[in-house]
Amino acid sequence: MKKFALFFCFLLLGLSAAAQGEENRETYLYAKRDTCDLFMDIFRPVAGADTTYNGIAKPTVVFVFGGGFIMGERVDDFTQLWFNRLNENGYTVVTIDYRLGMKGQKVGKGLIGAYKASGLFCQAQQMGVEDLFAAIKFLHDNGEELGIDTDNLVVSGSSAGAIISQAAEYEILCGRTGVLPEGFQFKGVMAFAGAIISNDGAPKYPSAPCPTLLLHGTADKTVAYSKFSAFGHGIWGSNWLVKHWSKQGWNNYCIYRFKGRQHEVAAYMNYVWEVEKEFLEQNVILGRARTVDTVIDDPSLPTWEWTRASLDNMYR
Fold it and tell me: Which domain holds residue 32?
């Protein structure tokens, strides 16, 4: 009976969140591609929410969903709960579509299969970056009408969306800005189980990244926590990135390492709000160059069966 009551409460909470989101949802077509139209949704802060911190405007959070580059949607009941929380805390949220570059693609098993597929993954990552850049251009070109300051954006993503977000920041640092406004840079990056995919060896950062929040499971087998590479092809994850940044003396990052956790951390945005809030307020809004490196071992945090996914069973 208690389990049923708990389930019923969660069901009501999800329905309430969805209803609240629909009332506060603005949808725009931001790009047309050969294969699909790309839309974004904007969710505004709730009435009465403080949209400043210490007198400084809070950033807009741009969200890129996850799904292995084969599935996902820009809004679902789970992410809607997170969007609501951001809105209640005075943040505008923009959530975007992007082309799913791995949809329908086949990947062989093991190291050889992963190596052969690396070109496909790089292409999927790049397609996502191009679509994210197009969304930012749309926001910039329509900034006055939409009331969004594109000089004050934080990009956030889950899994494949985190990969796109981090790759976009890397592309900007490398000068490959595409359609972006001249001089554009993110105010921050929040990556839930992300990494950078490369076919040209380890990422070669020419300068320090913007303030970055990384959350990753230390046992993640879906998106590498450290790195997985062969002959210059591979994926470089949160642990490798912060080691590289630290060696360069770039210390404006916060990494939370979830001990023994796998890919469930990609869906932890609703469970670690205090971590996100502190990062947004301190590193992003106040511009304080803080370094946080913390191991979290909390058995109360949830896990789900889908977090055991691997390349072999995702791309058959």
Answer: 25-49+56-314
